[in-house]
Structures are given as structure tokens and as C-alpha cells.
């Protein structure tokens, strides 16, 4: 299977295990060339699935681990993951975490993406987490800038902040990947800061991540093609 689809769309394989992930990837076929595998599938064969999709099916892989720990531990974990020759890996955007992850990824092509503030959180959630006061966008911009200064290859941010991050001097030549993307008319699910696929790309995102609207669809491949149809010309 060759990579023929528009890789600006990343489909989140938020399914229970690797077998379900392979089944979904089979249904999507050539409609999708880039997949996200998250922490929820780690004990369900996620790394094996990532390796199989990469090596046997020619897919790109985004491993969404959101690593956070002391520098030495992050560096060691990333060095181990880099052996799988994956494309993207997420870590928390704290500068010491990003710097350690970049050390661990040295010598590989794996891109380190810093998480700013989860797209499932709003201001009330941040208050409950004792985060500094102020608009969510301001906090995202500050975290994004610091992650990029620390060497991140890009950041994860909601579509609502993509344009603001793209305007940062530090963002030149860096990636912006946006979860919280919902096709027109789709249910929000657990996301609170959302936008449509076309708006996210127009506002500066390089890649969009879409999960439920595709894998819950009766025809996942048709749903993926519908999302791609919403994107502006590359």
C-alpha cells in the first residue's frame, strides 16, 4: 500500500487495540496516509501497530504519548522510541522536557511536538488545575513560544490558536498540528476549542487530527475523503 493521500489529514486511531486499528486502517485504505496512535492504545499493541503501518503499509505515524518527566527519563524514553523511525512524537511543552526529547531524538528524523494546552480544556478547567490566570489563548501562545525556543520541531494547539502561533517569530519553519477539528455539523465530543478542517488549515495548521467523525462513521473512507474535500488546495 503506498502513501497516496493528502497527509495534512491525520486520523486518530482511538480504538481499543492493534487489531481494531489494523481493521480500521484497512477500511480507510489509500484514503489516509497518516495515523495517530495515542496513549490509550499503548497496552493494546500500539507500538506494534505503529511499526506495522509504517513498515508494511507505508503510512506515516504520529505517536501521541505526551511525555512528561525529568529530563534524563524523557531523553531515554525518546531515544528508545526513535528506533521505530516514527514521524511525530508529542511531549509536554515545558522547555526542560522539550530539550531532553530533542536530545533523545538526535540522529533520527522523528519530529518532537510540544503540547501547549489540551484542546479538551477551557478556562474553568485551567482554574481547577491552578494554572495562571488569563485568557487561554495567551497561555497557549506563551507555552508555544517557550517550547519552540527550547527546540521543538512544532507544537500541538487548538485550531483557535493556530493563526496566533503561526504569527510568532519562533514558529517560522515549524509545524503546527491541530486536534479539536470537527467537520461541519459533527458532534463536539470531549473537545471544547474546535474549528472545521478548512478553517484550521487556513489559519496556519500544517496537519489536522480527526478521530471520531471518521472512525465512528458507517463508511470511514468516505468520511475521510469528505474531510479532505473541506481542505483548501495545498
User: What Rg do the Cα atoms give?
Assistant: 17 Å
Identify low-pLDDT runs.
none
Shape summary = globular
Number of alpha- plus pi-helical segments: 10
Largest sheet: 8 strands, parallel, barrel
Class from secondary-structure proportions: alpha/beta
Q: Helix share of residues?
A: 40-55%
Provide the descriptors you would attach to this structure in a database record.
single chain; 234 residues; alpha/beta; 8-stranded parallel barrel; 10 helices; 8 strands; globular
In short:
With 234 residues, the protein is α/β, with parallel strands linked by helices.
General description of the model:
The protein is of the alpha/beta class and 234 residues long. 40% of the residues lie in helices and 16% in strands. The protein has helices at residues 18-28, 46-57, 71-82, 95-105, 123-128, 136-149, 159-166, 197-202, 212-215, 220-229; strands at residues 9-12, 34-38, 60-67, 88-92, 111-115, 154-156, 175-178, 207-210. The chain has an eight-stranded parallel β-barrel, surrounded by five helices. Helix 1 (18-28) packs parallel to helix 2 and helix 6 (136-149) packs across helix 7. The chain is globular, with a radius of gyration of 17 Å.
Amino acid at each position: 500500500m503506498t502513501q497516496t493521500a493528502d497527509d495534512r489529514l491525520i486520523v486518530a486511531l482511538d480504538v481499543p487495540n492493534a487489531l481494531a486499528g489494523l481493521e480500521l486502517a484497512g477500511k480507510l485504505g489509500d484514503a489516509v496516509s497518516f495515523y495517530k496512535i495515542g496513549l490509550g492504545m499503548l497496552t493494546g499493541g500500539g507500538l506494534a501497530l505503529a511499526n506495522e503501518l509504517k513498515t508494511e503499509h507505508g503510512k506515516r505515524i504520529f505517536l501521541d504519548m505526551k511525555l512528561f518527566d525529568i529530563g534524563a527519563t524523557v531523553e531515554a524514553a525518546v531515544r528508545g522510541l526513535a528506533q521505530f523511525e516514527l514521524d511525530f512524537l508529542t511531549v509536554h511543552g515545558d522547555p526542560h522536557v522539550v530539550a531532553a526529547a530533542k536530545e533523545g531524538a538526535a540522529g533520527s528524523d522523528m519530529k518532537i511536538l510540544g503540547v501547549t494546552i489540551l484542546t479538551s480544556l477551557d478556562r474553568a478547567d485551567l482554574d481547577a488545575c491552578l494554572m495562571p490566570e488569563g485568557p487561554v489563548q495567551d497561555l497557549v501562545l506563551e507555552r508555544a513560544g517557550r517550547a519552540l525556543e527550547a527546540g521543538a520541531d512544532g507544537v500541538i494547539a487548538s485550531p483557535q490558536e493556530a493563526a496566533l502561533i503561526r504569527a510568532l517569530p519562533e514558529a517560522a519553519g515549524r509545524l503546527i498540528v491541530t486536534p479539536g477539528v470537527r467537520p461541519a455539523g459533527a458532534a463536539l465530543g470531549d473537545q471544547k476549542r474546535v474549528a472545521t478542517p478548512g478553517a484550521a488549515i487556513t489559519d496556519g495548521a500544517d496537519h489536522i487530527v480527526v478521530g471520531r467523525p471518521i472512525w465512528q462513521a458507517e463508511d470511514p473512507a468516505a468520511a475521510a475523503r469528505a474531510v479532505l474535500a473541506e481542505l483548501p488546495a495545498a
